[in-house]
Amino acid sequence: MTLSEASLLGFTAFSGLRLVSYLPQIYKVVRDRNGASAISYATWALWTGCHLSTGLYAIINLSDLLLGAASVLYALCCLAVIALTAAKRRRVPVVLASVDMEAGAASSPIRLDHVGRERAYAVRHGSNP
């Protein structure tokens, strides 16, 4: 096996693993009940930009359609994570903690309902608005 063939084999193997590695993240975002709070938009947007720029570079400068297509596919997976996260965060109410200024400790959590609608108000758990 030549060095060129070995590098192609390595690229193909790790590209396949990379593609499969997006699936558990997408699954976790879909199943998350807390608005996918562990997902960073900035990180996933950076990865999306890196993949798109790699794809464009491969197609325009290297005439490598395979690398270009693989990079665009990775970018689409990143966009899927971003879109699913955004959808999750729109559906989950924001949870804040009230702070007792004298004690310096958080008391009971406050949930904001109807955020982005006509009105927004805070509701303490166990009380009616």
TrEMBL record:
Parts of the chain that traverse the membrane: 39-60, 66-87
InterPro entries in alphabetical order: PQ-loop_rpt (IPR006603)
Protein's recorded name: PQ-loop repeat-containing protein
GO CC annotation, single: membrane
Keywords on record: Membrane, Transmembrane, Transmembrane helix
Membrane recorded as keyword: yes
Taxonomic lineage: Bacteria, Pseudomonadati, Pseudomonadota, Alphaproteobacteria, Hyphomicrobiales
Gene3D superfamilies: 1.20.1280.290
Superkingdom, taxonomy of origin: Bacteria
Keyword set includes Transport: no
Subcellular location: Membrane
Pfam families: PQ-loop
Membrane topology, from the record: Multi-pass membrane protein
